[in-house]
Amino acid sequence: MISLFRSAPPEPAGFTAAALLGAFESLGDNCEFGIAQRYAGADPLGLFRLSSAPIADLTHAVETRFAHYGGPDDIEVRVGAGGYLFCHSRAYGFAYHTGDMAPRTRPADILQREIRRIDYLKQRLLADLAEGEKILVRKGPPGETDEAVRRLLAALRAIGPVTLLRVCEAEADRPPGPVAWRGEGLMQGALPRFAPYAAATDADIEGWLAVCGRAYALRHSLVAPPDLAPAGPPLLDAPGTTRHVLPAAAPDPGLLVGPRPVTGLRPNRLHVVSAEIRLPEDFPGIRAALAVVDSPAHARSEADPARRGTWQTVYTAIKTRKRQTEAEFGLMLAGPAGTAAEARRWRVTEGCLPGLA
Description:
globular, 21% helix, single chain, 32% strand, 6 helices
């Protein structure tokens, strides 16, 4: 009998990107690392995972075992930009997005929920600190001093045998370099770039995977960062080269050209569409990217309009919906009519990055 249903690809085996970043816990200073975890397919609970956390306030909170954070006299829910609701601490500079919006949700309706949430996550974090298994991540904003980081480390290690990874931004035109010990319990590494504070969703997932892989290897005395599991067999593999042209002018975000379908997606999973793109020397456009119809990008890397006449790898990652098994994707171009680009080596796999699960 011939099956009418296409079988799903096998479950990827090995150490995944989600497992790697899930071995770390964020201590701020903003939500960038928490967003990078989400891009990798990990959504762990964490008191400061998606929170702003100035280091002096954070250190005081740790020193006092969070006694002043999260009570009814401390917490308030405010309406922020775009109608988003944010939970703020009066005692500290902590603030995080609640996931709710006004006017659909009133601040007073979720206040008690957020107080209970913070209380639970405080106890969870204190237990994690006492255990000392996870690597804590402190993303260092400009001006954060070594002295301030070491005071934070001392407060943390008064609770348990923690390991703290301080992540800085690499100097311009210099590679990030290795992750190294800076003292007992303190490691330091660097990212090629931080996301802008006004656009933390522009997290450098490749950079975070690299620095966390090096830190994981150092913490566990490995010779090299762990190899991440391959994505498994591609759901689509089209190596041929195709030229795509905008039939009419398309302002940003652009127009989808050369759409093609893909089936066999697994519901509620990360999938990545990748290709190589070559922009002509006279490229007049402002954008060339991959897009999936009716699926917001979970993470993406677009073509650099300044790089012309050479192939560059681009991708977009999505998370499929609860029952989604197929999608349509293509090249998104923005610019005047006639804007063109070549694309080759189209691949669709399960994972967060080309070649990674």
